Amino acid sequence: MGLIIYLNDKFVPEEEAKISVFDHGLLYGDGVFEGLRSYNGKIFKLDEHLIRLYKSGKAIALEIPLKFEELKKAVIETVKRNNLKDSYIRIVVTRGIGDLGLDPRKCKHPTIFIIASHIQLYPDSLYEKGIDLITVPTRRNLNEAVNPAIKSLNYLNNILAKIEATNVGATEGLILNQYGYVSECTGENIFIVKNNSLITPPISAGALEGITRKVVIDIGVNIGLQIKEENLTRYDIYTSDECFLTGTAAEIVPVVKVDGRIIGDGKPGKITLKIRKEFQIITELEGVPIYE
Length: 292
Ligand code: PXG
Fold this sequence. Notes:
It is built from eight helices and 16 strands. It is globular. The strands form two sheets. Strands 7, 8, 9, 10, 11, 12, 13, 14 and 15 form a nine-stranded mixed β-sheet that branches. The chain has a seven-stranded antiparallel β-sheet with strand order 2-1-6-5-3-4-16. The protein folds into two domains: 4-117, 2-Layer Sandwich (D-amino Acid Aminotransferase, Chain A, domain 1), CATH 3.30.470; 124-284, D-amino Acid Aminotransferase, Chain A, domain 2 (Alpha-Beta Barrel), CATH 3.20.10. Helix content is 29%, strand content 27%. It starts with a strand and ends with a strand. The model has no long low-confidence stretch (mean pLDDT 97). The relative contact order is 0.15. By secondary structure, it is α+β, with helices and mostly antiparallel strands.
């Protein structure tokens, strides 16, 4: 595709963007990442994503090798060098090159790279028809293990959940926490609509503090919905009026079936579609300009 990649302070062609086999990001999944989007030449919620990246780094005692403003510039420059207006941006910071032991103290320099490209998780038809979920056997990580609030390079739990969902023909997996409450899906937060309320699990239930989740909560307030962050059971999902998922990559995806139960009338809900429309307006208007 001929992309230009930011790698450790340099911009290099993708063929030259290589990482050592001794990088602990690869050997142990020791690192953190962020996924952002730009719309219409502007990077959406750039500060919010960077703040979360620094928090993830802090949680695993990994110092992000650039200052906030330097990283911000590097992200903007990466998109610029690839001449993109609408893009998906991945920032990855690993513990860096070490030896074959897992001791992070042996890794003297973190590795950092930024890719600006495209992503489409689902075909357009699924956004129109809505997707189906299945509850998967794999549970969300314990908060007291690798806390799911950390966007770490350890996504195997989520990948197992995705495999379990797609193995039985579902589009996405609904992941429960150790108490049996709903946490989220494999790379998206979950919302339900019930009467005039917009309800989503709290972060303590094992949900990522999604940037899109926050945008949707703000939209909900603006259109007069009551917002609740509370523990949800599968029963709550099955009996909801509407259900949808949110994420930077997925954006807003209507859910029409969960574990074989039809949600609402089996079509994307009215409030879901309204929120989706508002989201599209906001993403077109807001953001940090790339070209000026
Ligand atoms: N939960 C999890 C576990 C995530 O990884 C979200 C929720 C949504 O958060 P934001 O901030 O994006 O609204 C994410 C982030 C993919 C993919 O390819 C998706 C994410 C991250 C990495 C890859 O599906 N979503």
